[in-house]
Design goal:
With 330 residues, this protein is an alpha/beta fold. The protein has helices at 39-45, 130-135, 137-150, 167-178, 190-198, 212-220, 235-241, 264-268, 281-293, 309-317, and strands spanning 2-6, 13-17, 27-36, 61-68, 78-81, 84-85, 100-101, 113-117, 121-123, 158-161, 182-187, 203-206, 223-228, 242-250, 272-275, 300-305, 324-328.
């Protein structure tokens, strides 16, 4: 079978031939039809991720057809892979010892076939193409846990989603709009804000403008829920924008730690600061059901053929995308 491999730090993604896969106990073999990228894949290529090892077949997200399932539960079925391996028994957090994400340390979905635990397979909603289904797993469940499990967004609430254009932020927008919330966004691109408005956002602000916080206050007053994956020095302004008793969910820190934080805003406004990452098996199943119920179609920015996997990584690294970047495998 063909796979896309990273052979070392800062090395390009190349095609290699690998032996046929065989399932172990509780495992299944999936013929991958499409896989999607996450920033995690770029960070692994650059050597900027924990637990690095090379060679590695990256890719956390994938959809395809089960070709070998000894339990015969999914054989022949179109499925989506849940990339959270060994989440653990707690619904509140992942197991700190055994939890891992498909694509490192285990070979991932940038391959014609992949081996995963049967319990990490969910049937693909019929309304999704393989490319759309492949776009869903990691970003989709991260957004769903942030929106529904952690923030528990309700209809009519005002929600701010930062960094629109990235996969998690876009899924969070689609989910909160489906829930009936009043959603606002931030971006460094006016074009991306306009695209978010077309998806149901009520307004937005460009965070490259010094007055972005005031602009949002003028638009919405304040926010019951804020969902952010950047942190950094914008974090203090987010606390300022939260309404008393508001919920602020952080699922990432791409801009690092804030250099200053007005701590009194947290206790004086009785804010709920919530951390979130990935999602439990229950979150994943609930997310797929939600997507099926509301006929949500993931936003896809660009689809690359299998032979252009390295070009797909460079496209993500350039950060021009609005939506998920997908590799069509076969």
């Amino acid at each position: 079978m063909r796979v896309l491999v990273l052979t070392g730090k800062n090395e390009p993604l190349i095609i290699q031939e690998r032996p046929e896969l065989y399932p172990g106990e509780g495992e299944a073999i999936i013929r991958i039809r499409a896989a999607s990228l996450n920033h995690r894949d770029v960070w692994i290529q650059k050597g900027q991720y924990a637990g690095l090892k090379y060679p590695i077949v990256p890719g956390s997200d994938g959809s395809g057809v089960v070709v070998n399932d000894p339990s015969d539960t999914f054989t022949g079925k179109e499925v989506i892979i849940n990339p959270a391996i060994h989440w653990g028994s707690s619904l509140s957090h992942q197991d700190p010892k055994d939890f891992r994400i498909l694509g490192l340390p285990d070979d991932g979905t940038f391959a014609e076939y992949v081996k995963v635990p049967v319990k990490n397979i969910v049937e693909k909603p019929a309304h999704l193409s393989f490319e759309e289904a492949a776009a869903l797993p990691l970003a989709g469940v991260t957004a769903f846990r942030a929106v529904s499990t952690r923030a528990m967004v309700q209809s009519g609430e005002k929600v701010l989603i930062t960094g629109i254009g990235g996969g998690v932020a876009l899924f969070a927008l689609q989910y909160t709009v489906a829930l009936g919330a009043k959603v606002y966004v931030t971006s460094g691109s006016e074009e991306k804000i306009d695209k978010a408005l077309a998806l149901g956002a009520m307004g937005g602000a460009n965070y490259k403008n010094d007055s972005w916080g005031k602009n949002l206050q003028d638009l919405a007053g304040g926010f019951d829920v804020i969902i952010d994956g950047a942190a950094g020095d914008g974090m203090d302004e987010l606390l300022n924008l939260a309404t008393p008793g508001g919920r602020v969910v952080f699922y990432g820190a791409t801009r690092g730690n804030p250099s200053a934080l007005t701590a009194r805003r947290i206790f004086w406004k009785q804010l709920n600061i919530l951390g979130s990452t990935m999602g439990s098996p229950e979150d994943f199943h609930a997310m797929v059901s939600f997507v099926r119920q509301h006929a949500i179609h993931p936003v896809i920015d660009k689809i690359f053929p299998f032979a252009e996997g390295e070009a797909a990584l460079r496209w993500m690294d350039d950060a021009h995308q609005f939506g998920k970047i997908v590799i069509r495998v076969q």
